[in-house]
Design goal:
By secondary structure, this protein is α/β, with parallel strands linked by helices. It has one domain (3-207): TIM Barrel, CATH 3.20.20. The chain is built from eight helices and eight strands. It has helices spanning 12-21, 42-51, 67-77, 90-100, 113-118, 145-154, 170-177, 197-207, and strands spanning 3-7, 25-29, 57-62, 81-84, 103-109, 125-129, 159-162, 181-184. An eight-stranded parallel β-barrel has the order 1-2-3-4-5-6-7-8, surrounded by seven helices. Helix 5 (113-118) links the parallel strand 5 (103-109) and strand 6. Helix 1 (12-21) runs parallel beside helix 8 and helix 3 packs parallel to helix 4. 50% of the residues are buried.
C-alpha cells in the first residue's frame, strides 16, 4: 500500500475530508511562480498546517527563486515537509534542510531522472511528476509508470509518484511503479481548488489496492506541536 498525499488543499473542509479518508499527507501550495487556483497565501497555509492533526504530514509546495526565499516561507507556514520545485543544487538543498529542520522532497520531471540520481540522498524523498513548459506540476497528465518504477528501485530515496493520477487509475499506477507514495491534486478536484470529497475517499481506498513489493522507507509524520 502506497502512502497518499492530497495536494492543493485550500480550505479546512477539504483538509478534514482528506484526514477522514485516511490520507497520510496534505499539500499546501504557496509561493509558486505559476498561475494556479490551488495557491494560497502563506498565512492561510500556516493556519491549515496548524489545523492538521498529528501523524498527518503537512507539506509546503513551493517554487522559491533562491534558498533564502524557501526558508522564509517555510518559517511562516511551519510545515512538516517542504516540496521544492526548483533547480537548487545539493548545497542549497542542504541549507534549506538545515535552516527549516523539515523533511525535504525534491520534485523532478518524469524525463529528468539524471537530476534525481544526482541528488539522491540530498533530500528525504523524490517526487516524479509530469511538468508543464514553465516547470510546474499539476498538469493532470500521466507519464511512464514503468520508468518511474525502475527509478524507484535504483534510488535510495523514497519515490513519490505524481501526474495525472485519479481514483480510477491509482491502483494500477501503484502496481506498476511500486512507489513509496502517490500524490494527487487535479484528479480529485471539483473546480477552483475545491476537492471532491467522494473522489478523495475513493482515491485513498484505491491506492491501497495496489501491491507494493519493495520495502517501505519511512518519512516520519511529525506533529505540528512545537513548530
Amino acid at each position: 500500500m502506497a502512502r497518499v498525499k492530497i495536494c492543493g488543499i485550500t480550505q479546512e473542509t477539504d483538509l478534514s475530508a482528506a484526514v477522514e479518508a485516511g490520507a497520510d499527507a496534505i499539500g499546501l501550495i504557496s509561493g509558486v511562480g505559476v498561475n494556479t487556483h490551488r495557491e494560497i497565501n502563506p498565512a492561510t497555509a500556516a493556519d491549515l498546517a496548524a489545523a492538521a492533526p498529528p501523524f498527518v504530514t503537512t507539506t509546503l509546495v513551493t517554487t522559491p527563486s533562491d534558498p533564502s526565499e524557501a526558508v522564509d516561507i517555510a518559517r511562516t507556514v511551519a510545515p512538516d515537509a517542504i516540496q521544492l520545485h526548483s533547480e537548487f543544487d545539493g548545497d542549497e538543498l542542504g541549507y534549506v534542510r538545515a535552516e527549516t529542520e523539515a523533511k525535504l522532497l525534491l520534485a523532478v520531471g518524469h524525463d529528468n531522472h539524471d537530476r534525481a540520481r544526482a541528488l539522491d540522498g540530498a533530500v528525504d524523498a523524490v517526487l516524479v511528476d509530469s511538468t508543464s513548459e514553465d516547470g510546474g506540476g499539476g498538469t493532470g497528465q500521466t507519464h511512464d509508470w514503468e520508468a518511474t518504477g525502475h527509478l524507484a528501485r535504483e534510488l535510495t530515496s523514497p519515490v513519490v509518484l505524481a501526474g495525472g493520477l485519479t481514483p480510477e487509475n491509482v491502483a494500477k499506477a501503484v502496481q506498476i511503479a511500486e512507489p513509496f507514495g502517490v500524490d494527487v491534486a487535479s484528479g480529485v478536484e471539483l473546480d477552483s481548488g475545491k476537492k471532491d470529497h467522494n473522489a478523495v475517499a475513493r482515491f485513498v481506498a484505491n491506492a491501497g489496492r495496489g501491491v507494493q513489493l519493495t520495502p517501505w522507507l519511512s518519512i516520519p509524520a511529525a506533529s505540528n506541536s512545537g513548530r
